[in-house]
């Protein structure tokens, strides 16, 4: 019996990967923070800050997170997000960059697609696409938003193939030194309600 797409106790087998939900387990979160740093080549000095941020995010309303382990046992990828709510740090940063009409359209019933990271050894194998689809398949929101660096062509290409659109380009969401794209995706076409 082929195991492709096989579900077992919240886990899904996809090729050489086992994809499963993650939550607040400290060992899981530390491994995810390590993956984040390997993937994005951040300075090790801020690893504790990333771990604290990920830990905080797991407690947010509507949190959904998936981790993918390769059959060799290595954590190969992770994706997570949560319900966007007024008062959240990033939600307020996004809202400040958008005209009121766009903020209402994109943020009123929104899932924030926060992180999609794949270890360099496992890139270009479809893992990011599978994590993306599983994550968005678990939300009940009308829209999803994300940000990515304006020069992150692989991510922008993946998101464009998945139906994301650029809401605003070259935006200093966090700082003037780090311009980003704000991208959005309608998740339930029957509930868009664009008047």
Would you state the CATH class? Alpha Beta
Structural class: alpha+beta
Low-confidence runs (pLDDT<50, min 5 residues)?
Answer: 1-8, 190-195
Radius of gyration: 17 Å
Q: Which sequence of SSEs, written as H and E, runs from N to C?
A: EEEHHEEHHEHEHEE
**Tertiary shape:** globular
CATH superfamily: Gcn5-related N-acetyltransferase (GNAT)
* Fraction of residues in β-strands: 25-35%
Oligomerization state of this entry? single chain
- CATH topology value: Aminopeptidase
CATH architecture: 3-Layer(aba) Sandwich
Query: Gap between N and C termini, in Å?
Result: 49 Å
Number of strands: 9
**Largest sheet composition:** 9 strands, mixed
The helix content, as a percent range, equals 25-40%
EC number: 2.3.1.-
Protein name: GNAT family N-acetyltransferase
Pfam families: Acetyltransf_1
Organism: Virgibacillus kekensis
């Amino acid at each position: 019996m082929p195991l492709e797409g096989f579900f077992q106790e919240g886990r899904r087998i996809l090729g050489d990967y086992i994809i499963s939900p993650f939550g607040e387990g400290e060992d899981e979160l530390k491994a995810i923070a390590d993956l984040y740093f390997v993937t994005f080549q951040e300075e090790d000095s801020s690893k504790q800050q990333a771990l604290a941020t990920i830990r905080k995010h797991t407690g947010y309303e509507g949190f959904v997170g998936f981790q993918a382990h390769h059959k060799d046992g290595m954590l190969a990828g992770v994706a997570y997000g949560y319900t966007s709510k007024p008062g959240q740090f990033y939600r307020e940063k996004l809202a400040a960059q958008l005209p009121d009409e766009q903020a209402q359209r994109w943020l009123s019933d929104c899932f924030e697609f926060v992180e999609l990271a794949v270890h360099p050894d496992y890139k270009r194998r479809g893992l990011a696409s599978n994590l993306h689809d599983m994550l968005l398949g678990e939300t009940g929101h009308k829209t999803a938003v994300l940000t990515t660096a304006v020069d992150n062509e692989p991510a922008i290409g993946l998101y464009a193939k998945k139906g994301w659109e650029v809401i605003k380009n070259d935006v200093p969401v966090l700082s003037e030194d780090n311009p980003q794209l704000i991208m959005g995706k309608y998740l339930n076409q029957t509930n868009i309600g664009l008047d």
